[in-house]
Amino acid sequence: MATLHVLFACILALLICSAAAAESYNKKNQVPAVFVFGDSLVDTGNNNYVHTIAKGNFPPYGRDFAGGRATGRFSNAKGVADYIAQVLGVKQLLPPYLDPSLDLQELLTGVCFASAGSGYDPRTPQKMNAIPMMTQLNMFKEYIKRINASVGPERTQEIISQSAYIIFMGSNDLTNTYPNRRLPVHRRILHRSYDQPSSRLPQGKTRTRTRPTPML
Ligand SMILES: *[C@@H]1O[C@H](CO)[C@@H](O)[C@H](O)[C@H]1NC(C)=O
């Protein structure tokens, strides 16, 4: 029994130490803000403000989110961009830059510029009127001007130089702009209806073979 107690105490001590270490690591390496560029895999709702068919603002998107509301994220709940901001210890959700209700504090800790349907090739976003990569970068330039006007050049410089930048796109270029049936990746995708929401599938069926739909 005594050995068990000692063992338990050791495990507890280890847990406390590692939690403290993780916290101090986060504090030491904390980035002031997170900026994400890309396509639907990281869009947290910019396409809600764009005239496009590539939307994530209807059920079952968002059904496991607070309130079960579809937010424009192409996910049942949080999206990859949100998790990146969370893991980096910045905030729980990374808001879309085009949301007009963002306050200064929200802007200073980072935003998402991604747009579903976008890609590196300028032709990729044209098909769905998504926000092209160049425009996402121009939005970032506009963002810099905005925060510079609010908090001044010194703080702006600090945020821009010390933050995390994540770019997550390319799959739409491969599937929509360069459809090459000989490419193994494209052949695999052609045989899947990968953007079918699971709740819309017939009972007892997990995969349907339908006409390929473009990736967003
Ligand atoms: C920020 O604003 C100042 C003027 O207040 C200007 O000189 C500077 O170039 C601006 N910096 C950026 C990055 O826009």
From the structure above, extract its key features.
two-stranded parallel ribbon, GDSL, mainly alpha, lipase activity, globular, 216 residues, GDSL esterase/lipase, 5% strand, 41% helix
Q: Based on the structure, what is the oligomeric state of the protein chains?
A: single chain
Shape: globular
- The counted number of beta strands is 2
Assign a percent range to the helix content: 40-55%
Mean pLDDT across residues: 82
Work out the strand percent: under 5%
Radius of gyration: 21 Å
Could you give a short account of the major beta sheet?
Answer: 2 strands, parallel
Bound molecules: 2-acetamido-2-deoxy-beta-D-glucopyranose
End-to-end Cα distance: 59 Å
List the total number of helices: 7
Class from secondary-structure proportions: mainly alpha
Order of strands across the main sheet: 1-2
SSE string, helices as H and strands as E: HEHHHHEHH
Low-confidence segments, given as residue ranges, are 191-212
Pfam families: Lipase_GDSL
Protein name: GDSL esterase/lipase
Signal peptide: 1-21
Keywords: Signal
Describe this entry's structure for a reader.
The chain is mostly helical and 216 residues long. The chain has a domain at 31-180. The protein is built from 7 helices and 2 strands, in the order αβααααβαα. It has a two-stranded parallel sheet. The chain is globular and about 50 Å long. Residues 191-212 have low confidence and may be disordered. The structure holds 2-acetamido-2-deoxy-beta-D-glucopyranose. 2-acetamido-2-deoxy-beta-D-glucopyranose binds at residues 144-145, 148, 153, 156. Pfam families: Lipase_GDSL. Keywords: Signal. Belongs to the 'GDSL' lipolytic enzyme family. It comes from Linum tenue.
